[in-house]
DNA sequence: CAATCCTTATTTGTATGATAATTTGGCCAG
DNA sequence: CTGGCCAAATTATCATACAAATAAGGATTG
C-alpha cells in the first residue's frame, strides 16, 4: 500500500509494552485495525518492516508471529503476509480489543458491547446462581463489599469490574470467560462513552446487591432478573443509540 | 516438571502444520491444555526446548511468541515462561480450541458448548432478523438450500455449519463472531459426541427453514423462537447430561 | 499458436553465534 | 538486621547465512 521510501514512520514507543517486538506488533496491529491495511491486502515484507522500525528481522518476525497467532495475518513463502478476513480476527483478545477501541467510534463500540452484555449477563447470573462454588460466591461478595465501601470515592470502577468478572467466573463455563475482556474494557472506559461518570449511584449499589443475594441463595430466576435490570433500567448505558439500525452496512 | 535428560520427547510432526515453529507451538500448546504444565508453572527454558525438539532457538522463540499471543504464556527475563491462569487463555482461538478439545471429556465439552449456544443463538437469530443485509440473507438462504439438497446424503454438516455461521455474521456484532469457531467445532464433531449421527433429520430441515423465514421477514420474535426450538426440542443435542451439576468443582 | 516444463527471483523459514538487557538471589558491608 | 552491590540465569535483540517454497516468466516442444 505504501512501498515507497518514506512510509508511515509508524510512530513506535508510544505504547507501554517494553519489548521491541511487542511495540512493533502493536504498531502493525493498530494499522490493521484502523484499516491502513485492509483484509486481503499484502503487507510490506519483513525487510521493509525492518527498515521502517529499525529493528532486526528476528524482532519483526516475532511481531508478525504474534499477529498471526491472533488471527490478523497469514504468511506464505514468496507471497508475503496477507491480512485475514475480519471474521478470523481474535477480537476478544486483549490486545486486539485495545487496538480496535483505538480506531473505532466509541459510541458504536459501547453499543455493541452493551448489546452482547444484555444477552449474556442475565444468563451468566443465572448460571452463577446454579453453579457457583462457595469460593466463587465469596469473591463476588467481597467485590461487592469493596464497591460499597468505595461508594464515596468515585473510583468504584475497580470493584465493579471485579464483581462482574467474578460473576462470570462463577458461571463455570469456559466459553463465557473470554467476555471478561470485553466487560472490563466497557466498564473501565465507561466514563469516556457516557457523558456522566457514575450514573445514578444510588440505584447502582442496590441493583448489584440484588444480583449478589440471588446468586447467594441460588435463585437463577431472580439472578437473571436482577442482572437484566442492571443493564436496562438504571442504565449504566447509553440509551440514545438504538441497538437496531446501528449502521446500514455500507456494502 | 521434567528437567531430566530424556524429557517428553514430545512427539512432533503428528499435526498437519507444515512449519516447524507451528508444530512446536502445537506440541507445547497441547501439553499446556492437557495439564502437563499447569497455570503458574514455569516452562523449560528456550535452550531446553531446543534440545527437546531439535530445533533452533529462533524457531522455539517464534513458537513461544505464538503461545504468548494466545494468552497461554507470559515470558519474563531471568524468570522464564510461566503458564498464565486459565481465564487469560484465548479459548475461542481456533488453535486453542483444538488443543482443548484434544484433551477434554467430549461430553463435557459438548455440554458447555450447547449451554452457550442456547443462550446466544436465539438472540443471534433475533439480531439477524433485525440487522441482516440482503447479501447476508442470501448467504443464509443459500446455505439452507444446500442443506436441503444434501439431505439425502448424510454430509449435510457442511451446509449446516455455513447456515449457522451466516446467521451469526448477519447479527452484525463483532463481539459475537468469535463464537463461530465454537459452533463450527460443535457441529462438525457432533457425531462424535452424540450416539446417533443426524438425529431426527425430518425435523431438522423444517426447523432451520423456520429460522430462515423469520429472518427473511424481519421478525425478531419468531426468529428467536425458531432458533430456540432448534436447540431444545429436536436436540441435536445430548440431553442426558444435566446442564447444572456439571461437575462439583474439585476445589 | 498453445501447452508444458524448467529456470529464476522473491519471500518466508530455519540455523547459528554473539551481545545486550533484565532481574532474581545471594553476598557483603554497615 | 538492613541496605546496597554483584553475579548468574534467562529472555531480548542483532547480524548473517542458507534452505525451502512458490509465483512468474521464459524456453521448449507439440
Features:
homodimer; about 250 residues; mainly alpha; Arc Repressor Mutant, subunit A; Four Helix Bundle (Hemerythrin (Met), subunit A); 2 domains; two-stranded antiparallel ribbon; 11 helices; 2 strands; about 55% helix; about 5% strand; disordered N terminus; disordered C terminus; DNA-binding
Please outline the helices and strands.
The structure is a homodimer of 251-residue chains.
Chain A: H1 20-33, H2 46-53, H3 57-69, E1 73-76, E2 80-83, H4 94-102, H5 106-131, H6 134-149, H7 157-170, H8 179-188, H9 190-193, H10 201-216, H11 220-232
Antiparallel strand pairs in A: 1-2
Helix pairs in contact in A: 1-3, 1-4, 2-3, 5-7, 5-10, 5-11, 6-7, 6-10, 7-8, 10-11
Chain A binds a DNA duplex (30 and 30 nucleotides) through helix 3.
Task: Summarize the structure in words.
The structure is a homodimer of 251-residue chains. With 251 residues, the first copy, chain A, is mainly α. Chain A has two domains: 20-88, Orthogonal Bundle (Arc Repressor Mutant, subunit A); 105-232, GntR ligand-binding domain-like (Four Helix Bundle (Hemerythrin (Met), subunit A)), CATH 1.20.120.530. In chain A, 57% of the residues lie in helices and 3% in strands. Chain A contains eleven helices and two strands; from the N terminus they run αααββαααααααα. Chain A has helices at 20-33, 46-53, 57-69, 94-102, 106-131, 134-149, 157-170, 179-188, 190-193, 201-216, 220-232, and strands at residues 73-76, 80-83. In chain A, strands 1-2 form a two-stranded antiparallel ribbon. In chain A, strand 1 (73-76) and strand 2 form a beta hairpin. The radius of gyration of chain A is 21 Å and the shape is elongated. The interface between A and B is large, with 51 and 50 residues. The structure holds a DNA duplex (30 and 30 nucleotides).
Amino acid at each position: 500500500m505504501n512501498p515507497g521510501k518514506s512510509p508511515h514512520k509508524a510512530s513506535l514507543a508510544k505504547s507501554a509494552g517494553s519489548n521491541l517486538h511487542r511495540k512493533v506488533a502493536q504498531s502493525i496491529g493498530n494499522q490493521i485495525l484502523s484499516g491502513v491495511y485492509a483484509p486481503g491486502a499484502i503487507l510490506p515484507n519483513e525487510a521493509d518492516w525492518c527498515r521502517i522500525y529499525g529493528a532486526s528481522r528476528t524482532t519483526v518476525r516475532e511481531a508478525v508471529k504474534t499477529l498471526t497467532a491472533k488471527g490478523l495475518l497469514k504468511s506464505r513463502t514468496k507471497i508475503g503476509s496477507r491480512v485475514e478476513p475480519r471474521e478470523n480476527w481474535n477480537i476478544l483478545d486483549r490486545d486486539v480489543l485495545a487496538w480496535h477501541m483505538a480506531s473505532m467510534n466509541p459510541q458504536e463500540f459501547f453499543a455493541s458491547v452493551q448489546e452482547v452484555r444484555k444477552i449474556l449477563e442475565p444468563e451468566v447470573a443465572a448460571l452463577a446462581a446454579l453453579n457457583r462454588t462457595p469460593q466463587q460466591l465469596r469473591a463476588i461478595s467481597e467485590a461487592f463489599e469493596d464497591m460499597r465501601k468505595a461508594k464515596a470515592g468515585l473510583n468504584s470502577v475497580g470493584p465493579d469490574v471485579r464483581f462482574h468478572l467474578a460473576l462470570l467466573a462463577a458461571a463455570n463455563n469456559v466459553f463465557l470467560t473470554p467476555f471478561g475482556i470485553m466487560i472490563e474494557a466497557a466498564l473501565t472506559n465507561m466514563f469516556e462513552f457516557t457523558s456522566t461518570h457514575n450514573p445514578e449511584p444510588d440505584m447502582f449499589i442496590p441493583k448489584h446487591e440484588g444480583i449478589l443475594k440471588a446468586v447467594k441463595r441460588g435463585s437463577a430466576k431472580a439472578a437473571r432478573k436482577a442482572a437484566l435490570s442492571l443493564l436496562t433500567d438504571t442504565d449504566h448505558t447509553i440509551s440514545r443509540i438504538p441497538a437496531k439500525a446501528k449502521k446500514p452496512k455500507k456494502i
